Amino acid sequence: MRLIDPDAELEFDPDDVYDGPSRSQKKREVEALQDLGAQLVELPDAQFKRIELPEDLRAAVAACRKITQNGALRRQKQYIGKLMRGVDPAPIQAQLDAFNGVSAAETAKLHQAEKWREKLIADNEALTLFLNKYPDTDATHLRQVIRNARDEAARNKPPKAFREIFRVIREAMQKTD
Length: 177
Known about the structure:
Blueprint: H1 14-17, H2 23-41, H3 45-50, H4 55-66, H5 70-84, H6 89-100, H7 104-122, H8 125-133, H9 139-155, H10 160-176
Helix pairs in contact: 2-5, 2-6, 4-5, 7-8, 7-10, 9-10
Main location: cytoplasm
InterPro entries: DarP, DarP_sf
Keywords: Cytoplasm, Ribosome biogenesis, RNA-binding, rRNA-binding
């Protein structure tokens, strides 16, 4: 039996052996880029026109949107994935997230608007605070909608005014941004 001396130095350092991502990791990254390209293909026309893309990628996505045959569609999506490898995907993903309302800032704004709506319905003093923070808001309209929302809640009616308050709050918040 051979004993290993713990004080002896190793001939190689395990950290020096790492050559980069594994084949599996590279494949996952390529598939993620293809999925991002597929999301571009499925965008509505209005959003596709607004998104910023390199010209060759835009042309490939536009061509893919016209293809109906499955085999050709699959090959075109692979080609889009290949083009995506030469592009930084982060700005494209950020734009898609903004379209889908996924961005953290958008989510935070929605939560803040929901909190304002709850405060406005529950407390009359909240209206003064809201108008101080967002002075461009139509106070008369907001008061009326709050009264209607309270009335709807008391009578178990559909929440039409409840939704209208949210819309007014969002507009006021967007004006100040």
